[in-house]
Write a structure and sequence with these properties.
8 strands
């Protein structure tokens, strides 16, 4: 399993108690709220419960993996599988790379590791991603890594009084 969770200096790993403050920082950063549909900050206690919760995707239907850059020995992001449906073998995915560590290929490496892990370990056949129309970096990332736009939810999100479409992407893993 190590090979499907590490490629070069990018490594995916389970949440650890030491990740609490970093996750709290990301979840409470208003710049990310629009993408995650968050309206209010999370308490440290709520994040602590999440970090300590069982990470069995078959039990909780989701899993978050931290993205480490072993070259700089730092956690630079997180990648998720959510809305897991074991019967139909599909899940949603999302990724966050900390602003200071973007545009260096880490997101592509992490997404490809996640695809391999999802297919080979969990048995997922299809991944989906939902991306706001103005999130051009995420659109490029997913399109360049095998995701195809399969739908549009028109005027689905409002941001500062402007209604935007949400694109639905799918990646067939098998």
């Amino acid at each position: 399993m190590k090979n499907c969770l590490q490629n070069g200096n990018i490594k995916l790993r389970a949440l650890e108690p030491d990740d609490l403050d970093l996750i709290l920082h990301w979840e409470n950063n208003p710049e990310y709220w629009r993408v995650s549909n968050t309206l209010t900050p999370f308490s440290k206690d709520i994040i602590q419960q999440y970090v300590n919760a069982a990470q069995d995707i078959f039990a909780v239907k989701q899993v978050r993996l931290m993205i480490d850059d072993t070259a700089i020995q730092k956690t630079i992001g997180a990648i998720d599988l959510f809305d897991f449906d074991p019967r139909h073998q599909h899940a949603g995915t999302g990724i966050l790379i900390d602003t200071l560590h973007r545009k260096n290929g880490a997101a592509t490496s992490a997404l490809n590791l996640l695809k391999t892990y999802a297919r080979d370990v969990i048995g997922i056949r299809n991944l989906t991603a939902r991306i706001h129309e103005d999130n051009l970096a995420s659109i490029r990332l997913f399109e360049h890594n095998g995701f195809k736009r399969v739908g549009v939810l028109e005027k689905w999100h409002s941001h500062q009084g402007i209604w935007m479409d949400e694109f639905i992407y799918q990646c067939k893993l098998v």
